[in-house]
Specification:
78 residues, mainly alpha, 3 helices, 2 strands, 10% strand
């Protein structure tokens, strides 16, 4: 975090919300600060959403660190 930027996390959240707004509105994606969760039933749909998200991040000069990503994690029911 840069010094003298007191609302950096809030601004980052707003920027990500604006970039991914319509994907979040489908309720198949959720984000909180630097975490994005995609929930779909079919793998093909999941891949399309991930591809669209990556495209939008690239268009806005943003990126993800691959070592921090977990891909295609299945939900476990208890």
């Amino acid at each position: 975090m840069f010094f003298r930027l007191t609302n950096l996390l809030a601004m980052f959240q707003i920027i990500i919300n604006e970039i991914l707004w319509d994907l979040i509105n489908t309720r198949k994606m959720a984000n909180f600060i630097d975490n994005v969760i995609i929930k779909t039933e079919e793998e093909e749909e999941h891949n399309k959403i991930v591809e669209e998200m990556m495209k939008r991040l690239a268009e806005n000069n943003s990126y993800v660190k691959l070592e921090k990503c977990r891909w295609k994690v299945r939900e476990v029911e208890f």
